[in-house]
Input
Amino acid sequence: MVGSIRKLYRNTLFRLSLLGALLFVLSLFVALGYVYYAVVQSELRRVDRSIDAEIAELRTEYRESGERAILLAKQSGVLSQFATPDSPLYRRIYTEAGLEPVGRAIILRGLSYERLYILQTEEGVIGNLGLQPEDLGEGFLDAETLQKDKTEIVFEKPVDGEDNIESNRGRITTDYIYLENKPVLRLIVGRDVEAVMRTGERVRTAILTSSGIALFLGLLSSFFVSRRFALRVEGFNRLATDVRAGNLDRRAPRNYSEDEMDLLAEHLNAMLDHISRLMSAMRYAGDSVAHDLRTPLTRLRTRLETAAVELGDTDEAITLYEAAGDADQLLSTFDSVLRIARLEAGEQRGLLKPLDPKPILDDLAELYEPACEDAGLSFTADIAAKTLISADRGLLSQAVSNLLENAIKYTPEGGAVALVCRKRRGGGVEVSIRDNGPGIPSWDRERVKERFVRLDKSRSLPGSGLGLSLVEAVADLHQAEFVMTDNDDLPAVDKGGDPDRPGLRAALLFPRVKSKLVDTKPETEVLVKP
Amino acid sequence: MRILVVEDDSVAAEYVRKGLMEAGHVVDLAPDGDLGLEMARAADYDALILDRMLPKRDGLEVLADLREDGDAVPVLILSALGEVDQKVEGLRAGGDDYLAKPYSFTELLARVEAIGRRSDPTAAVTKLKVGGLEMDLLARTVRRDGQKILLQPREFRLLECLMRNAGRVVTRTMLLEKVWDYHFDPQTNVIDVHISRLRGKIDKEFDEPLLHTVRGAGYRLQV
Output
């Protein structure tokens, strides 16, 4: 499960659509946030404005009423003409007169509890908020609970009579009225904002819920879209793997929707058609050249042979046998070129299967040991048991045989040749042929793998320059690496005036095989009759 | 042996016929697949040499038709298509052996004699005998003139292959295929070295050599 999620996360389209879904949810969140702001905050601001307006109105009424009472009192002589606001009587008349209309107004307006009021004077508190002087704090000036200009409170609202009370949220503003810099009245005006707040909460919940739903649906759709896409891409990948494995007749499935993927499939198929046309043209050319060349060569060879047999045991006969041998050489070179071309085309990849190379290498060691001895070379085989590589017996044998023959050919008499097979770190397997002959200079090691390349020193010896090309082609087919390095394992022998040269280690480095061992018996064994 | 050669290249066919006749066989020629099939059905041949690429009817088709009739005549397939996979295809179709062009005539002769009806190298025998040389296939022992000879397993198989084809030439390629199951030709003289070791064991201490080298061809075990 974790693996498949990780795999899904590697999917480009999944990542893109996931990003798209997240961006969409983010935009949705911002847009709905604006809706929330527009609905709730602007409503609250409207409430605040109406509170401010009402406070201003009440203040004006308070002042006008107070000043009018002072004026009347002065005219009627109740108050001295020269009385100042400092005098208790002035103050008393002013506040009583001011409070009268304001108090009446708030009592009437506050009956519905839509509007909330508290009036606090030095004498006491009136209003519908149900707050007692102690709730408002000690004294009058330094009360801290309601000191703030604007605040939110929870108040008790009677519903359908006195018994039923619900807690509603309100929004209040506190203000003071001063007389000669001394506060005479604290005025708290509020509004019931329960409805607005509830709407706000519902909008908030709706925003969160809808964003969640959008996120879920977005993830779900990106999952399905990318899975569909991934399946089709995986189809192409499988196709490419199959084709690389040599199944050139595989084609990408099409749905003829003419979308990009379908067009890609069409183009891929056209490309594969082209490749297989080229391949078959090449094969046809190769096969017909092979046929056309081999037929006259067969005749040539047969003529030479027949003539040689007729001549009996003479020098001329030997010359004719040698000529026939030359014809064989010509053809074996031609064969090698064709074989390398086929190996490079990868058609034989299907032959590969997991096997333990030990029996194969033991056979080769057994085959070549006498030849080494005959050439005056010591031969050792150091073949680890229970290794596993993916290989074909015939191809592996041929590659190792080519390398062994090179070692035998180039190592001077008295030298040593070793066939080594051992595990590599990381689970791979190294099959190497080591000698203490002249070696190959490091700058020539890549070049000698090319076709028909022969180093100057080897020109005097028989060979076609295809042996290592074939080894390279076999290695490629096996996804093995063919490397040549100096060989310091074996004691040096006289290497013809170049004592520093360290010999050659030609190694096939096979990758780790994951699958199990299937069968080590070559399939051809059943077919070849004794 | 009576041998039918189905081959469209008349020059090559003529050489093959001449060579086989010199080796003491009776040879008929068929220039195309249809005629080849007709002739193979009409007469009882000991071996068939069948080219794969034939006019009118492909060599493998001829072979398939013959096998369908229940005709078990030994068939040597001959072709310019020498790749291993095609070789396998030919053997699967019912061929007894496969030879790629250009072949040396001795190779062809050796192989056709090895598969021919008169010789039966696969016969269920338990003892092989050539002159004073005796091989017990069950006990895996070899004696010459009553004297026990110790052989390595591979030397035993090598000798077995030579003894089963006693009197006939066995080529190096045949030995490589039958004893080692390799289908490529090594450039060096690996087989010769093995033969000379074997020779050292079976011939060295005896007066009359049994294992002969045939120039340009291979080896023959003969009294």
About this structure: The longest strand of chain B covers residues 2-6. The mean pLDDT of chain B is 84. Chain B touches chain A through 50 residues (CB under 8 Å). Chain B has two domains: 2-115, 127-221.
